[in-house]
Amino acid sequence: MERKKVIRHNYYTLIIASLTVSMLSIVLAFSLKRITEFCEHPIFEFTETHQNILFIFLPTVGITAIYFLRKYVFFNKKNKGITEIYKTLDQRKDHLPFFKIPSHYLNGFLTVIFGGSTGVEVSTVVATAAVGNQIYEQNFSARIYKRELICAGVAAGIAILFDSPLTGWLFAMEVIARRTSKPLFVSCTAAVLLAWPFIYFFDNKPLIPFAVDHWNWTAIPFFLLLSLLSGALAVYFTLLVTRMKSFFGNISNNFLRVNLGAIAVGIMIFFFPLIYGDSYHGFKSVLEKSMNAQALSILLLLLLSLLKP
């Protein structure tokens, strides 16, 4: 009987801690998303209207700002993306320090508003995971629930970012947790349940500007084809990223390396402005124009996806 009470108490504290992590992650993800959009659009529209040659140099402004922030504000400590989360989960003594929250927040913001290609997804994932890790270190729940609280933060952050609680839940369980358990189910579910009403009342604008009102079974072969093409694109993208990392890794000067990459991105943006800011703005524009014309340019969408840095 005492054991059941302890287990029940641990679940209660886990739920409360997960809700706390979720609330903080919601604020973080929502503010990053909205502030980035608010600053990105005016910069893009001004540059496109008045001086589009600046597209070549804008990404280097963002990446240079990040370089000096990391060097002088964050004491030259590196950010390695989702790898940091896997490391802290696999080696329980390692933790995501607090500076990961402002560091990744600023990285995502500065990159996207100046047209860069990192996007806010990785920044949101690592920053919200760090929120979960910080709450874990406050001993609000049992010491075995580190993975659960980190995943709760990621689930809420991704749910807000994509306006989809299910997306956040699946991403946290499949990509971050990489396992299933009852505590994980409880923590991630509690996190997205709190994010759900927030999305409904404050952030319920759909990405795709049309509603699905019926289903045709004849569409199944096209979905299968889409799955194959998406898988091939994912493999291509992975190979491209690893090759580019290897190429730029051979440049010893950090400042030169990051700015060469930024200028390369800027040149692509100059010729294809739709990919500015990881193509969030461009993707919506293409969809809206295509739907209004009652004709979807598959070639244009494919080109956009292939050119997305």
**Helix-strand makeup class:** mainly alpha
Radius of gyration: 21 Å
* Element-by-element helix/strand order: HHHHHHHHHHHH
Provide the residue-averaged pLDDT.
83
Count of DSSP H/I helices: 12
Beta strand %: under 5%
Uncertain residue ranges: none
Annotation, overall tally of beta strands: 0
Helical fraction equals: over 70%
Biggest sheet features = none
Distance between the termini: 57 Å
Coarse shape: globular
List the helices and strands and how they pair.
Blueprint: H1 2-50, H2 58-73, H3 82-90, H4 100-113, H5 121-137, H6 146-161, H7 165-177, H8 182-202, H9 220-249, H10 254-271, H11 280-292, H12 298-307
Kindly describe this structure.
With 309 residues, the chain is an all-alpha fold. The chain contains twelve helices and no strands. The chain has helices spanning 2-50, 58-73, 82-90, 100-113, 121-137, 146-161, 165-177, 182-202, 220-249, 254-271, 280-292, 298-307. The radius of gyration is 21 Å and the shape is globular. The mean pLDDT is 83.
Question: What can be said about this structure in brief?
Answer:
The chain is globular.
Keywords:
mainly alpha; 12 helices; globular
